[in-house]
Amino acid sequence: MALTTPRPMADYSCSQAALYAGLEIAWNSEAELEPEFAAENTIYTPGLSVTKIAAIHAARALPDGQARYAEAEVLRITLAEKQVVAMGRWNSLEGYVRRAFTGAYYKPRIEEAGQDYYARAAAQNWEYVELLMQAGVNFLGVHGAVLVADGGMPAG
Q: What's the whole-model pTM score?
């Protein structure tokens, strides 16, 4: 699913730390001269600098980019590890199918077990990993007894 709006981009030409420091200096100056600012323009209301400085402190307290994306990176690693396990299990299923359904019976049965999804699943196309696993589960539901009896698959 594509993003419907573009990612926000920095609209300043300094580091984030320098931006926060500069903003805090500016709003502290405004606080010191609040009556003069209020007399000059009605957008400067009593306590405005307190609100703006609190917003700067809240922004500083937010997690940085590394902290925000660390969990996504960890989830991606976990997903890749699970994909390796899933592919190994499907490979075991393929061996049981090969032993249980010989000759001309092998091709339609291994395709029923999801072989057409295998190449894309092996390339970590997650939708195809899911399709491959579901095809395997469906196949086991229909042909599990044959795989145990003739394919050497352990029960359970």
A: 0.62
